[in-house]
Design brief:
2-enoyl-CoA Hydratase, Chain A, domain 1, 256 residues, globular, 4-stranded mixed β-sheet
Length: 256
């Protein structure tokens, strides 16, 4: 499938999505978000793909927020729909059974920070900056920022970031648990690929179940403990379980 605002490349067991709006600091207009969602969904049944990298074109920005010019004149109905559609995109990423790594190459602000937080792992370049500056526009975050930020860094730091709109650098983001690692820009994508090679040696069905269980920790409809019990039991009928246990008993590496 061809896209207008993103580039997609499948290379071995890695699927890379690049937001291709470098001249606009990869700002997330509505069409770009929908393209990211479709790209994530398009690869879910590809058994060769063991990890997805989401990044931005160039070295200045992962995604510098939503495209403000696009929604400056929206009314309540349009604003509500925009938020609902954005949540749907972020939920699609979060619920992907294939792990999604955000390769944060520069500014990750507003909707861009929300996009990174929807990914399962965040690796940042040394020049990365994070923030939720929506209050400067007279808005709260609209793509899950008030919820995922507090899950990742806690209530106190979340309120500080959300109420002040202050930006934080990569090292502070690492220290508060917003990201997993800081690396030089030239090592960013290779570091993400190293993670994917680790995923590739593990059971893909078990990885998808772990993601499901952790996501359900934060949901009231099917709490995380109940989901874990269900997924643990379901794993016993998978070929991955048979291969993993057989390999362990035979003292060899599993071939998933």
């Amino acid at each position: 499938m061809s896209y207008s605002h993103i580039l997609t490349v499948k290379e071995g067991n890695t699927f890379t999505i690049t937001i291709n709006r470098e001249s606009k600091l990869n700002a997330l207009n509505i069409e770009t978000l929908q393209e990211i969602k479709y790209a994530i969904l398009s690869i879910q049944n590809d058994v060769e793909v063991r990890g997805i990298i989401l990044t931005g074109a160039g070295s200045k920005a992962f995604a510098a927020g939503a495209d403000i010019a696009e929604f400056a004149n929206f009314n309540v109905k349009q604003g509500t729909q925009m938020s609902e559609d954005g949540h749907n995109v972020m939920n699609t990423i979060e619920n992907s059974g294939i792990p999604v790594i955000a390769a944060v190459n520069g500014f990750s602000l507003g909707g861009g920070c929300e996009l990174a937080m929807a990914c399962h792992i965040r690796i940042a370049s040394e020049n990365a900056k994070f923030g939720q500056p929506e209050v400067n526009l007279g808005l709260p975050p609209g793509y899950g920022g008030t919820q995922r930020l507090v899950q990742l860094v806690g209530k106190s730091k979340s309120l500080e970031m959300l109420l002040t709109a202050d930006l934080i650098n990569a090292q502070e983001a690492l220290s508060i648990g917003l990201i997993s690692k800081v690396v030089p820009m030239e090592n960013l994508i290779d570091t993400c690929k190293e993670y994917i090679q680790k995923f590739a040696s593990k059971s893909p069905s078990a990885i998808a179940m772990v993601i499901s269980c952790i996501n359900n920790h934060f949901k009231g409809t099917f709490p995380g403990f109940e989901r874990e019990i269900s997924e643990f039991g379901r794993a016993f009928e998978t070929s991955d379980f048979k291969e993993g246990t057989t390999a362990f008993l035979e003292k060899r590496k599993p071939n998933f």
